[in-house]
Amino acid sequence: MSLHVGIVAAGPIDEIPDLSNYPKVNYWIGVDEGAKVLYEAGIQTDLVMGDFDSIDPSLIETLQQSAQSVKVFPTVKDETDLELAFLEAIHLKPDQVLIFGATGGRLDHAWMNVQLLNMFADQNINAWLVNGQNEITLKKPGKYELEKDLSFPYISFLPFSEKVENLTLQGFRYPLDQHTIVQGSSLTISNEWSEKKGTYFFTSGIILVIKSRD
User: Where is the Thiamin pyrophosphokinase thiamin-binding domain (predicted)?
Assistant: First the structure.
């Protein structure tokens, strides 16, 4: 059976979509206050982890007892709780990872979480940061397919590295053929699918793919 991991972080609750809309997720990780979000949504949590410094102490025991497994970390550590959760997810060798509650609130944490997608890209794991308006992934050179997503009509391909070389886009309204894109250019923002499935390919650099809606 395919393994689809959902990670819920401690981001603002209004940034987290209705988790019941993701029935393919069959392994849930609650990170710090994200464990409370899963508990209140009535979703069985497979792993609760974090330093729990942002949770009311009276709730911690309840959250830990509701989970299949618990990992507690010290408040003072080199990694964020979410980075540790990413390492846990990678260890599971999943087919897909969806990360919720990781893009709102503090910009330093949000930007770091985008950078941490590198961990999944290095392992060729399909991982996305998800909020109410966007789904974001990071990819290393290669060929990838994306099925048309009616809930997210726009798709952007942005260079995460200084440049991305030989970017080819097929099956999109605005195609490209072996084009080099550089940081600061808006050429590849707000594209759309023209077919049921789109393909993108590039030979060097790191690309940020963002599906979005108004």
Answer: 142-208
What's the rounded Cα separation, in Å, for the pair 171 and 100?
28
Contact between 138 and 207 (Cβ < 8 Å): yes
Phi, psi angle pair for 205, to nearest 5°: 100, -175
Residue 43 has what DSSP assignment? Answer: P
CA-CA distances (angstroms) from residue 202 to 140, 147, 181, 210? Answer: 8, 18, 10, 16
Q: What are phi and psi of 5, to 5 degrees?
A: -100, 135
CATH number, domain at 157? 2.60.120.320
d(CA 86, CA 65): 22
Name which of 102, 212, 214, 207 is nearest 159 in CA terms: 207
CA dist 102 and 112 (Å) reads 9
Provide long-range contacts, Cβ within 8 A and 24+ apart, for 49-54: 49/73, 49/81, 49/84, 49/85, 49/88, 50/10, 50/81, 50/84, 50/85, 51/75, 51/77, 51/81, 54/10
Same domain, 9 and 87: yes
Pairing type for strands 4-8 and 96-100 reads parallel
Domain of residue 104, residue span: 4-132
pTM of the model: 0.92
133-148: pLDDT as tens digits: 999 999 999 999 999 9
Q: How many domains does the chain have?
A: 2
CA dihedral 17, 21, 23, 26 (to 10 degrees): 10
- Amino acid at position 1, single letter: M
Question: What is the per-residue pLDDT for 76?
Answer: 65
